[in-house]
Fold each of these.
Amino acid sequence: MRRINVIGTSGVGKSTFAVALAARLGYRCVELDELHWGPNWTEAEPGDLRCKVDEATAGETWVVDGNYSAVRDIVWPRADTIVWLDLHRSVVTWRIVIRSVSRIARRTMLWGDNRESLPMLLGRDSIIWWSVSTYARHRRDYPALIAAHPHLQLIRLRSPRGAERWLRSLPQRPARAATTPGARASAQKP
């Protein structure tokens, strides 16, 4: 495993897991949200995002956190491993609610100097609603998407304990490269 993409629905714990995995292996961690979000929750232009992802995944070793379909055609052909955090819906929902409420209460700084807010939590574009509404689609679509890339090794982790056990089973290597600035926000997630 030299180029790894950690995927799963929003709130499953991808960022926290990817930062820990990258640290364990001594790889650079690339957080797609960091590359995507600018100030005032502005999204990167598609061409700019693709250029950033192309540059960030040009190296020999990395862990990419995220599953943006707009850049999957860049990340997956370069990756050799997919780690799919496929936790039960109740675990994901609990995590996303706790994470969002905690970020609001602590005024946690996120990508592009953004913060979550109560109106965002309760609005139509709520990350909680996004997580709940995309959960079944991800579980349905990922197997076929992954199968279309036979070079990828799939590691499907279905419980928090299983994910922790798998992570601990990997050899600890010294750091060779830094994480992206987004790892700062990821490390603060509950």
Amino acid sequence: MHGKHLLIIGKGGHYRVVRSLISPNEYDIISNINHLPLPLSDINIKRSTFIIKKYLKLYPNKSLYIFIAIGLNYHRKIISNFLNNIINIKFKYAKIISKDSNISNNVKIGAGTVIMPGVSINTDSSIGSHSIINTNSSIDHDNKILNYVSLAPGVNTGGNVTIKSLTHLGIGCNIKHNIQINSNVLIGSNSYVDKNCSSNKVFFGSPAKFIKLKKNDYNYFNF
């Protein structure tokens, strides 16, 4: 027993993958919670608050960590807003980093982020909070990946790439160096991005082209 207790929020495939990466030498897993405050309503928020507080009362004097193991970017943001603004108990967000990843020493990784096996992250890059860097993705030098971003398996980025919050890059995407992808963008699988991408849009193809507008998921975050 090492005094680091982990409560996981989520279910399904992403939850199972995240759990498989957690070393028993690093965290004691308390439980996972499938009850989420979705859709947003007073009843769901009260129910979720009660369930989470019931678990957390068991560890009032321990070092408590929470990880949101949910694949959808905007759902992770809803839940983190819920925890930060409504649950009046001190805790920390865990970082889950596979031992089979290759990360330069000066890379910064935010709380609540998961780095999957086979990922390479090169020097002077940074990954924000609550992001997913999926299996066998390669991030080159001086990348800036912000909060609530997800990179699907096999994504490759050149140097000096910026990816802003709530953006999802599909399987096998390739991003040219010096590219900025703005917030709430969806890049379709196997696309090659050679131009900057503006917010709230879907892009697809090689080279990637604008397909349609994407729903602004920020509307979900009002408590």
Amino acid sequence: MTVSRALVLSHSFLDRDPRVRRTVEALLDMGWEVDALVLDDSQRRGALRITQVPMSRERGSLLRHLLEYAVFFITAVGWITWRVIRGRADVVYVNSPPEAFVFAAIAAKLRRTPIILDIHDAMPELFEARGHTGGWLITLLAMQERWALRFADRVITVHDTLAELLWSRTPGARLDIVMNVPDTADLPPIEWDASSRILVYTGSIARRYGLDDVIRAIAEVRDDIPGIRLRLIGEGEDLAYLEDLAMSLGVADRLDYVGKVPHRDIGPAQADAWLGVNALKGGGFADIGFSNKVAEWAAMGLPVLSTRTKTVFRYFPEETLFYVEPDSPAEIAAMLRTIDAMDPNAIRSRTEAAARALAEIAWPVQAERLRSVLEEVNR
């Protein structure tokens, strides 16, 4: 029996990127052999062979980003070409960002080996949210997105809203949707503590995720909700800014920074939380962003306070989350007071509704979609 082989490319650490990790696991479950070019140490795990790009991934300037991308791209060209020439590739699976990495598979294109591009975020909107508005960079990001969609044989993206945006910019692109939702088997439920007043956030520590609005809301309600505090789990470029903000508002003692924790420890790190907070800033990036954090909290049974964005609301209706409008510390504060006064059973009812909404889009559903795409391109 012939074994299918996939080349998986991602400028990330496999053990830290749940979407890429789940893709690799789906391929292995299908009986494929997988070669992965990532940032993890080179190693062999059964049918998975990992090749490390010898470079670090650091948060820094735009120039640093471009340098990392260039080194990774050049390495990927040689890595893919050698394996395609040796006949060790039935599918090349390229993860963005950036979409331009797909061009590293030029040898596969010439040999008619199927190329799948998995777009995790819309890069023009992502960089605008980081403060790079207008100019040559956004134009270049939009161009490489269009060219990449036309170059790939199939494109997978993470939800309907982003797919609609990509279609609007590249009409006729062949798109499939495999949502970036957690595998609930990896997230054991936590026992929600109704008496706790700990707000928890996991992920990149950045202003675009509205963490400054949450801190301002805590300053507003600290006398009404005496035990309230915010726990940050993750790392990012805006930690110092948020700590300074908390100090200036007199709530430095209400801010707990845990740092990055292994994936297996995410659940225990939130076991005593009251609410998960997903307070995205308004704008294009927020509207096309689906928070994997919200899905994880729904899976664990943790109530969620979330900005009402187009994408989140599309999958989690009104009575599943505690919604607020973006960019409004006052509205966050008002919602915190409302939840503080609610009957715990009413809060549990909402978390149960969120769990039911998640079940309709959970990873087993998405894994089946992914398998269908892989089987189709490998015929």
Amino acid sequence: MPTPRANPRGSQPRELFGFTLGQLARMWRVEIDRRLSPYGLTEARWMTLLHLSRIEGPVTQRALAEVVSVQGPTLVRTLDWLEGRGFIERQRLAGDRRAKSLHLTERAAPTLERIHSVVEGLRAEILSGVDDTELESCLRTFRKIAAHLGGDPWT
């Protein structure tokens, strides 16, 4: 039996927008997952490594959970896996016995390069034929919508 799918044909642009945005984001992540799965990287793992690589200075597990948009216990399993592979280290924070900061290790560098390579390759493939003017217009629209939702995804 085929998987049921929503049929947005005939819908107005405002009706289609959220549906399409959600589907595109999901499709993008699924394809990255597919390309990184031979390396043992799930979305949770590669997203956590990617976010850690972009954060300057020490970050606590709690702060990282917020950035990655997951619950603390969910992140702990991912961090345990990454630590077990030697990609991260947890270090006690001075002045707080309970909190630990997270740090990438040198061993994470080749994996991060692989993630960047896969993402850049996919980006080149799916954005071929889309010029920068179209992308800039799309990004302006995203910023307006994000402002109405009370945030800025680029902060």
